[in-house]
Amino acid sequence: MATENYERVKGKTEHHSDVSLWFALLFLLGFGLVMIYSASSYTAFADYGDQMFYLKRQAVAVGLGLIAMIVVSRIPYHFWERFSVLGVLASAVLICLVKTPLGVESHGARRWIKTGIPGFNLQPAEVTKLAIILFLAVLVCKMGSAIRTWKGLIIMMAPPGVLFLMIWKITNNMSSALIVMAIAAIMVFVASPDYKKFVLLAILAIAAAIGLVMLIKYTDVLGSFRASRIRVWLDPESDPDDKGFQTLQALYAIGSGGVRGKGLGQSMQKLSFLPESQNDMIFSIICEELGLLGAASIMLMFTILIWRMMIIANNATDLFGGMLVSGVIAHIAVQAILNVAVVTNTIPNTGISLPFISYGGSSVIFLLIEMGLVFSVARGIEYRGN
After folding, report:
1. N or C: which end of the chain has fewer CB within 10 A?
2. Buried b vs exposed e over 134-170: b needs ≥16 C-beta within 10 Å?
């Protein structure tokens, strides 16, 4: 990894400002708005009589998120330590509220709660991702060397495990539950100098996953909804009109785009063929309209974003700051990788949005709040030029 000439210098007031990070972030946000309009204009006009319906909502969410990001970036990140436990408890309460009259159902899923703000519902899973980053960053600092033990590992993973079960069972949102656990696992991995236990756990997890897939493929022991998704993942054409429909349409979009794509706005799959084209499946529309080159450009922007955050994490003035940024890196990287994997049928289909690009107000607002924490950590790095 490249090194930077950052030092804490007594009496200096010039702080680190990462232009590359700002560029990558603003590019992804701007590109996301363009692609949301392109992917949703047809269905938005058909459903609401307004081609810009989804674009307007997302633009408002992005604006609010940027304001929140700037405010958070100006607050010393240690200020948030005192809210780590409160954040986890609040997340648990919000998840439970989904089952109350405040809960909102959309597209057959009950995963949101009413906020009283017209056009904006809160998804508790997004709050939980931010809360678990803050909580584990504080816990890592408090536990110190105890994190190396199996007991320490269990203590670290217990709260995320409880929230994982709550998100999965109460909101029926397996994808967000897995992301919460992935964030926790990566943060604990980064904090621990002993990697042997993680290698062992990874091998056991992979073996269990392979065993489960084989069990589902060759037997009828598991007949659940998710088991049927795994069967369709192995062979999408086995159920082309139902569970395999979205996956096949996404693959058609990717294949028809070729290297250069059909051109911005020229997608055919977005014309009511591909469900959730502006949300979970927006990457397939990018591939169809902008081709392999457009998709590669987006992956490059994510790479730059993550690389610059890694530089900030490595140069953070303390462990707490480094762990905060590591948690944000884990969230964005895991979610982006899983989204592309779902769209390309590399893993079974599950609802995962593409960070900063997919439609979703809660997602983009809380992602930008996380970026505010990253910029706050960066401001703590005093800079000495060459």
Report:
1. C
2. bbbbbbbbebeeebeeeebbeebbebbeebbebbbeb
